[in-house]
Design a protein that fits this description.
six-stranded antiparallel β-sheet, single chain
Length: about 190
C-alpha cells in the first residue's frame, strides 16, 4: 500500500470513528463543517483524498486535530518525527509546502506545522472556530501574514500570535524562500 493509500484509509476510518463518537449524523457534520454530505461519504469510504482545507474543516467541526484524523494508530508516550517524516498536507508547483509535524487533542486540538514558501507563493485559510489561536515563528526569509485583510510583515527571527477565527494566510512576497513553524491551538468541541 502506498503512503497516499495508507493516509486515505486512515482518514476514512478515523473520520467515521470520530463522527460516530461525537454522535453526529452525516447531515450534522456537513452542517457544522461546511463540507457536503456527499464528500463526507466519499471520504469515509476512502474513495477520495480531500484537500487540506476540507480536512481542516472536518477536524475543526469534530474538535480534533488533523493529526488525529490522519493517525494510523496511537503510538508510544513520546512520538518523534524525524526530518522529512512530517505528513505533507499541501504543496505548490513552485516548491512551497506545508507539513504537519505533530499534534495532540487531549485538551483541544494542538498542531505543529512546518511551512516552506517560495517567492510569490502563499497559502490561505478559512476561519477556524472561535477561540482558535495560531502562533508562528519565521525561521528564514520574510513572511507576510494576512489576518482579516490586514498585512503584517514578519522578517526572519520574528514571531506572531493571532486569533484565527477570521480569514488568514501566509505569503512570501520577497525574493528568497520563507520558512516558518506554526502552532495551532483549537478549543475543544463543547
Amino acid at each position: 500500500m502506498t503512503d497516499l493509500e495508507e493516509l486515505t484509509q486512515a482518514l476514512a476510518r478515523n473520520l467515521k470513528k470520530w463522527r460516530v463518537e461525537r454522535q453526529f449524523t452525516l447531515d450534522a457534520l456537513a452542517a457544522r463543517s461546511g463540507v457536503s454530505r456527499g464528500m463526507i461519504i466519499q471520504i469515509e469510504q476512502a474513495r477520495t483524498n480531500p484537500s487540506v482545507g476540507t480536512t481542516v474543516k472536518l477536524a475543526d467541526a469534530l474538535g480534533v486535530s488533523i493529526t488525529t484524523l490522519l493517525d494510523h494508530d496511537r503510538g508510544p508516550r513520546v512520538q518523534v518525527v524525524l526530518p522529512g517524516e512530517g505528513v505533507r498536507m499541501w504543496s505548490a508547483p513552485g516548491g512551497s509546502s506545508a507539513a504537519m509535524l505533530t499534534g495532540d487533542d487531549r485538551r483541544g486540538p494542538l498542531e505543529l506545522w512546518a511551512y516552506r514558501l517560495e517567492p510569490g507563493e502563499g497559502a490561505d485559510s478559512d476561519p477556524h472556530p472561535a477561540g482558535t489561536v495560531e502562533m508562528l515563528h519565521v525561521t528564514a526569509g520574510e513572511l507576510t501574514l494576512v489576518v482579516d485583510g490586514e498585512d503584517v510583515a514578519l522578517p526572519a527571527g520574528s514571531a506572531a500570535t493571532f486569533e484565527a477565527n477570521v480569514p488568514h494566510g501566509y505569503h512570501n512576497r520577497g525574493a528568497e524562500t520563507a520558512e516558518m513553524t506554526l502552532a495551532v491551538s483549537i478549543p475543544p468541541v463543547g
